Amino acid sequence: MYMVGFFSMYMTLRGVLQAEKRDVIGLQEQLFVRKVIELHDKIMAYVTDCFLNNSLFHKALKEAFEIFCNKGVARSSSAKLLATFCDNILKNGGSEKLSDEAIEETLEKVVKLLAYISNNDLFAEFYR
């Protein structure tokens, strides 16, 4: 049980620090979303590989991402940042001019992040 608590605190801290880093050094919104996607992928790999898909660690991951995905980032909500990110990906293929397969993979990862946002209607409103 202690391990799950420490893991949850670690994930929450990493996410909050990423959000605060966005405030401090002015990372571009697109890069911020990419970093959150990378963090989610990395932590999901920990849960899958190191903790053998234990349900307590999945729950800790979910709770930690809900905390910082619903935290405001530089006067913007995560929903707005994700909507802007998706818009850029769909219209331009992103800053890296992604292939169709890479676009689909990236959008699937964004959908996973949307599950952590408490007000998905806000995302839909921003995306319009």
The whole-number mean of residue pLDDT values reads 83
Find the count of extended strands (DSSP E, 2+ residues): 0
Q: What summary fits the major beta sheet?
A: none
Given the helix and strand composition, which structural class is it?
mainly alpha
Helix content: over 70%
The radius of gyration computed from the alpha-carbon positions, rounded to a whole number of angstroms, is 15 Å
Number of helices in the DSSP assignment? 6
Shape: globular
Low-confidence stretches: 23-27
Q: What is the string of SSEs from the N terminus onward?
A: HHHHHH
The number of domains is 1
| CA-CA gap between termini | 43 Å
Which range does the strand content fall in?
under 5%
A few lines on this structure:
Belongs to the cullin family. 77% of the residues lie in helices and 0% in strands.
Which helices and strands, and how do they pair?
Blueprint: H1 2-25, H2 29-50, H3 55-69, H4 78-92, H5 100-114, H6 120-127
Helix pairs in contact: 1-2, 1-3, 2-3, 4-5, 4-6
List keywords for this structure.
128 residues, 6 helices, single chain, globular, mainly alpha
Overview of this protein structure:
The protein is mainly alpha-helical and 128 residues long. It has helices spanning 2-25, 29-50, 55-69, 78-92, 100-114, 120-127. Helix 4 packs antiparallel against helix 5 (100-114). The termini are far apart. Residues 23-27 have low confidence and may be disordered.
